[in-house]
Amino acid sequence: MRRATAEDRERAWALMYRFVEAQNRRGELAQALGFRLGGGRGKVLAQLRSGPATLRELAEANGVDAPYATVIVDKLEEHGLVARQPHPDDRRRKLVSLTAAGEAALATADAVLLRPPAAIGQLTAEEVGQLTGLLTRLLDAGVTAPEARR
What we know:
By secondary structure, the chain is mainly alpha-helical. 57% of the residues lie in helices and 8% in strands. It contains seven helices and three strands; from the N terminus they run αααβααββαα. Strands 1-3-2 form a three-stranded antiparallel beta sheet. β2 and β3 (94-98) form a beta hairpin. α2 packs antiparallel against α6 (100-113) and α4 (55-62) crosses α5. It is elongated.
């Protein structure tokens, strides 16, 4: 079996990039929510799905400093998606948690972002199996997004 050349890998990467960009749903999500969520705000919102967190915890989980985490939470709070309360053990710290509107925004985001692209419907069952196998191999090999390696 012939190993892929650097040119083969570059072409595959370029095609994968074009496909992913063509499936971009940021505009659709912004329209459904009524505002742009942005990557940092979306990640923080998703992290709060598992329960309240302090600003420090959010900053550390996202590799940002505390002032920037505060900016992210401020924006989410402006949209009514999160609320801050005093921490029960230390009133100087704040706990950030999802509001009902935040939970609804996450459900909307899931409905928009987790829907398979229509193009996948053009593949046969065998092709979907091949694609799934290849993507699984890539993920198992440690080929992940830079944020996931932190």
